[in-house]
Specification:
Helix content is about 35%, strand content about 20%. It has about 425 residues and is α/β, with parallel strands linked by helices. The chain has 3 domains: about 15-100, Rossmann fold (3-Layer(aba) Sandwich), CATH 3.40.50.720; about 110-290, UDP-N-acetylmuramoyl-L-alanine:D-glutamate ligase (3-Layer(aba) Sandwich); about 300-430, Mur ligase, C-terminal domain (Protein-Tyrosine Phosphatase, Chain A), CATH 3.90.190. The strands form 3 sheets. The protein has a 6-stranded parallel β-sheet with strand order 7-8-6-9-10-11, sandwiched between helices.
Length: about 425
């Protein structure tokens, strides 16, 4: 257990404090465990009435569980409210009325209070997970002891409770987490890009950007903010950080045979700039980058059948991510899109991919948003399911084509998550005749 956590336990700083944790996902339960270890009285609330005490595991006999619609009474006595990522705090305003804003925080913020090691945090609309895991791979190759988590893998609260102390904390951080941060401060903050995303959660693009910038607001001159060149129009002249600012863009500095596209050349450069601040040499970075392979569901080649390449990019949940994936290929692309809409300019997207896309195969939700503009420039079909769309495009494709699952949407119309959607794509491809 982290030394600072142990000190707070010894000092009884949280003893008898009433804490409310909103949400029973991984991050919420990790926060509940940490609060319980600190001696707080813990109430876990979740809107899902189907959740039972078994969801709490070993906490079942130690914390209070309340399910169903949130009520003001669930929060009225709270000294601290900790939100799981994805909980729309704005919509909870009526039941949180009267609570001091400084007592409302994300799991990331709460955990960061107990961190001593330097934090390297990665945010952006696209490419966060690839860049975060690449940074981790380079630092491990260079002999550093790291923890990698946050919005991917292990919640930060869980690290504090269960894992050996690391030399460097590497975090992927989302706008959901950052929106409820007030003191969270990385030593190195990396902002990869910004485009329409999560507008089903945020009120508008301004709120979304403000959430992203929260992590830079408390950084000092001893810290470094690494910003992509594309952010100049948004950030030039804006006083959002006291950190030393460095800009980056795509380069050919390193050989990265398994990372396709200009966007990945930016991600590689970003990773190098970040690790160089921790004493990693260019030679150490080059070896790790050369060996690094993309994660599943991120421009992941699945198979080549009858001269047609099938690529799984299920993680592409924004139009900008789809555009980057399309531009990663020099071959005609048949792109599969559809799901739960998160926002974006379809007309501008269609213009940006014209000349590279041979056809668009829509499936599932958002047809009414995507089809009107896309059909002005491309042959467009629609199928109820992804499997049907794969089979249709396979029947139309010519040798040399790419059939690319890059949905531009979240998966929740038909799947539990993007990984399940990607796995379904792989099954559909496996079922095709060679």
């Amino acid at each position: 257990m982290n030394r600072i956590v142990q000190k707070h336990i010894s000092d009884a700083a949280f003893k008898d404090k009433q804490a409310v944790v909103v949400g029973t996902g991984k991050s919420g339960l990790a926060a509940a465990r940490l609060l319980d270890a600190l001696g707080a009285k813990v109430r876990v609330v979740d809107r899902d009435e189907k959740i039972g005490a078994d969801k709490l595991g070993k906490l079942a006999d130690r914390v209070e569980l309340v399910t169903g619609p949130h009520e003001k009474a669930h929060f009225a006595d709270a000294d601290l409210v900790v939100f799981s990522p994805g909980v729309p705090v704005r919509k909870l305003a009526p039941v949180l009325e009267g609570l001091p804003p400084e007592n409302l925080l994300s799991e990331l913020e709460f955990a960061s209070w107990f961190i001593e090691a330097p934090i390297l945090a990665v945010t952006g609309s696209n490419g966060k997970t690839t860049t975060t895991t690449l940074i981790s791979a380079i630092l491990k190759k260079a002999g550093r002891k790291v923890f990698t988590g946050g919005n991917i893998g292990v919640p930060l609260c869980e690290y504090l409770l269960d894992m050996e102390p690391a030399d460097i904390i590497i975090l992927e951080v989302s706008s959901f987490q950052l929106q409820n941060c007030r003191k969270f401060k990385p030593h190195v903050g990396l902002f990869l890009n910004f485009s329409a995303n999560h507008l089903d959660y945020h009120a508008d693009m301004d709120e979304y950007l403000d959430a992203k910038l929260h992590m830079f607001s408390r950084m000092t001159a001893d810290d470094t903010a690494l910003l992509h060149d594309s952010l100049h129009p948004l950030l030039d002249g804006r006083a959002f950080t006291d950190a030393r600012v460095e800009w980056f863009g795509p380069t050919e500095r390193f050989e990265a045979p398994h990372l396709m596209g200009e966007h990945n050349r930016s991600n590689v450069e970003a990773a190098w700039r970040a690790v160089s601040l921790f004493g990693v040499t260019e030679e150490e970075a080059a070896e790790a980058i050369r060996d690094f392979r993309p994660l599943a569901h991120r421009i992941e080649p699945v198979a080549e059948k009858n001269g047609v390449l099938y690529v799984n990019d299920s993680k592409a949940t924004t139009l900008d991510a789809v555009q980057a994936a399309v531009h990663a290929f020099e071959r005609p692309v048949r792109v599969l899109m559809g799901g739960v809409w998160k926002g974006g300019d379809v007309k501008a997207f269609a213009e940006a991919i014209e000349g590279r896309v041979a056809a668009v195969g829509l499936f599932g939700g958002s047809r009414e948003i995507l089809e009107p503009e896309l059909k002005k420039r491309f042959p467009v079909s629609w199928d109820e399911t992804l499997g049907q769309a794969v089979r249709r495009q396979a029947g139309l494709a010519a040798p040399g084509d790419v059939i690319l699952l890059s949905p531009a949407t979240s998966s929740f119309d038909q799947y539990a998550n993007m990984a399940e959607r990607g796995a379904d794509f792989k099954r559909a491809v496996e079922g095709l005749d060679d």
